[in-house]
Design goal:
This protein has one helix and six strands; from the N terminus they run H-E-E-E-E-E-E. The chain has 67 residues and is mainly beta. The strands form two sheets. Strands 2-1-6 form a three-stranded antiparallel sheet, covered by helices on one side. The protein is globular.
């Protein structure tokens, strides 16, 4: 979970995939890390997600694009 936060801070926006196969796009402005409860909180316009911070298996950094 600490590594996820480090990569997000360095890149600003990343895609994460959990052990359950769920994919989330997280950004600095809409993501909070709760180290006491080991969860990542993601706020989107339609919902708030609580993600098991230790279940992240993959981090994808992607580059900006025009579309």
């Amino acid at each position: 979970m600490e590594f996820v936060q480090k990569e997000l801070q360095a890149w600003g926006e990343i895609m994460i995939t959990t052990a359950a196969g769920k994919e989330y796009e997280i950004h600095l402005g809409d993501t909070q890390f709760d180290f006491e409860n080991r969860v990542i909180r993601l706020k989107s316009p339609s919902a708030e997600y609580v993600i098991d911070g230790d279940s992240v298996e993959e981090i994808q950094k992607h580059y900006g694009h025009r579309d």
